[in-house]
Amino acid sequence: MDGSLAALQELIQVVARLRSPDGGCPWDLAQTAESLIPYVVEEAYEVVDAIREGDREGIQEELGDLLLQVVLQAQIAGESGDFNLEAVVRGISQKLIRRHPHVFGDVSVQGVDEVRQNWEAIKAQEKGEVPQKHQFSTKLARYYRTLPPLMAAMKISEKAAAVGFEWENIDGVWAKFHEELGEFQQALAEETPERQQAELGDLLFAVMQLARWHDLDPSAALQGTNQRFVQRLQKMEAVVDRPLSDYSLDELESLWQQAKAQIAQEQS
User: Fold this and answer.
1) DSSP code of 268?
2) 168 DSSP 8-state letter
3) CA–CA separation, 208 and 24 (whole Å)
C-alpha cells in the first residue's frame, strides 16, 4: 500500500510540474477541463479495449493513461480553488461506504438484486430525490447526458419498457422501424438537414428496439462490424501493389469480396 501511495504522489507531482507556469509544458498549461474531455473518453475506451483483448500489459498502461486524466482534472480544478484530488478520493470512499451498508453497517441482503435496490434507494436519498410527477423522466435524462448514445438509447428503452411503455409483440417493433425508415427517406428527399438528422436519430432508436427485443448488444454489434471492416481492408492492402485509392470501384469490390471470403475461410 505504501508503494502505491508513493507512486501516486509522484504522479501528482509530475502533473503539477507540467502545469507549472514556471517551466511547465506549454501544451499541458493550455489545457482546460473542457479541452480534455475527448481524452477522458478516449482513454476510457482504450481501457475497455485492452480488457476485451485480455492484454494484461495493455490494461496496466491504459489504466495509467486514464488515471492521468483524473489527476489532470483534479490539478486544474485545484488551481482554480474548486476541489483537489484529495477531495475526489475522499468523496468516492465515503460514497462507497454509504452505499454498502451491508458491508460497512448492519444491513442484511439476500443477493445482488437487493444490493442494487439498496444502492438506488441510497443514491436517490443522497440526491434529495422524492417521488414526484417528473421523477422518471428526470432519471432517464441523466442517461442521455452521461452515457454514450448507443448505451443511453438502450438504457432509456429498457427503463421505459419496465414501466409499461412497450409494444405488445415484435410485429409492433418492426412496424415502428419501417415507419421511421420511411420518414427518414422522406426527410432526405424533402426536409432540412436538421429534420434529416432528427429522423435519422428516430430510425437508429427504432433499430435499438429491435436489438433489445432480440437480446442483442448493439454496441458490441457495431464494434464487430468496425473490426471486420478494418480486417477486410488489411487483407486487401496485403495483396495490392499500390494505394487502394488508385483502384477503380469495381476492382475494390472484387478485392473486398476476396478478403471477405479469405477471412471466412480462416475462421471456419
Assistant:
1) -
2) S
3) 47
Enter the C-alpha cell of residue 252: 475494390
List, as one string, the DSSP characters of 66-83: HHHHHHHHHHHHHHTTS-
Q: Are 156 and 144 spatial neighbours (Cβ–Cβ below 8 Å)? A: yes
CA distances from 17 to 3, 10, 75 (A): 21, 11, 10
Question: How many residues in the chain?
Answer: 268
Confidence (pTM): 0.67
CA angle 199, 165, 118 (to 5 degrees): 115
pLDDT in tens, 46-80: 999 899 899 999 999 999 999 999 999 999 999 99
How far apart CA 59 and CA 67 sit, in angstroms, is 12
Rounded-to-integer distance, Cα 52 and Cα 47, Å: 9
How many beta carbons lie within 10 A of that of residue 195, not counting itself?
15
* Cα 129 from chain centre: 26
**Joined grid coordinates for residue 105:** 453497517
Q: Where are the alpha helices (DSSP H) in 80-169?
A: 85-98, 101-104, 112-126, 135-146, 149-162
218, 205 contact by CB (below 8 A): no
pLDDT above 80 for 96:
yes
Q: Give the cell for residue 27.
A: 501544451
Q: What's the rounded Cα separation, in Å, for the pair 231 and 261?
A: 12
Number of helices (H) and strands (E), helices first, in the chain? 13, 0
